[in-house]
Amino acid sequence: MADLHESAALESALDAPMSAFAQVIFGHMARADQRRWAEVYLRGLLTTRGRKSVRRIAATVSRSPTAAMSLQQFVNASPWEWAPTRRELTRLAERGMNPRAWTIGNAILPKRGDYSCGVHRRFVPAMGRSINCQVGTGIFVASDDMAIPVDWRLLLPEEWTEDPGKRLRARIPEALGCRPMWAQVLNLVDTLASRTTRPRVPVVADMSECPEAEAFLHGLSRRGHQFVVAVRPALQVVGRAAESHRVVRGASLGRVQRMATARDVVRRPGARQWLAAGEGRHPQVQFLSRPVGLPGVGHTYRIFSEWYSEDAPSPRVWITNLVDHHIDHLMALTRLHAGTLAALVSLERDFGLVDFEGRSFPGWHHHMTLTSAAYAYSRLSRSAGAGGEWLDLSTCVSV
């Protein structure tokens, strides 16, 4: 990184708000060269047009012939921790917006070859075909206006966790094994709960393609989280309206739960209700709602779904433990998931989420952290732009 002194013009090219932002989220880095390249990479993600490869970023922000090599080294090999940056992103996101939920989003990152950490063959329903890809799961701090990614996990199939050679080449931590998707998401929720300085908000997630969503729901319930989660229509639930009946089993009385799928329960007669007209919403929207239980769990939940017509495609079925909340509030929380999907599209299209060329586990996390930081700066500064200053970052610097 000897060319840092040759690129002194970079510092003057960075505007003051961006430099202040970089100081806050990268200030934990031990070395000055790490902090400098983090800011350079951040600016490159924000200003490079088209594909955000390391080479194109370097050409945008520096005239040094070795800048690309230095940036590649910084992202892939430099030993900086990403957790402190994500902690600061959480703090700034919560300070710069009015969080209404923690939302979950999955990023499908297509890859050529088999050497990038975690890459595997996977059927992607949105594409209708199987592709080579990495799967990243992110947790977002979401408001009515935006969703900011603040933490990520990389799905590691057994072919990666059980192969010592692959683990060594990709620098996968020794203690990290193969975890199902629901466990990855629950770990993200646990981590964010340990970092937030605000009251907890509901968890909103789409687990409709997860065959073990029940384990996720049980985990959230045990931790005392409020949640609104999309589940597969075939999820087995206990209908609370006619929940069970008593039968004699030998000398004792037992209870037999009447099991049904979420789809069947929510479509039973009497489940359909009108949703009062609201701003920006068609007055004829209806919803389906039923109280239910889950097998082996004593809590009461509510499943609900929007309803259009008999011949319309089946909408998502959601389950929540916010049983006393108005359906209008629940529907508003589900719409935050759509905002998270829009944020993922922007991260992929405008901030280089899918453009990372490195192969290591730390490199992937470094890239996702830097991409999230660029997106957060763009959204938060744009949000405050009409009102003047971005944020009073002098009050945010860690001590």
TrEMBL record:
Recorded superkingdom: Bacteria
InterPro entries recorded: IS701-like, IS701-like_DDE_dom
All copies of domain Transposase IS701-like DDE, residue ranges: 26-245
PANTHER family: TRANSPOSASE
Protein name: Transposase
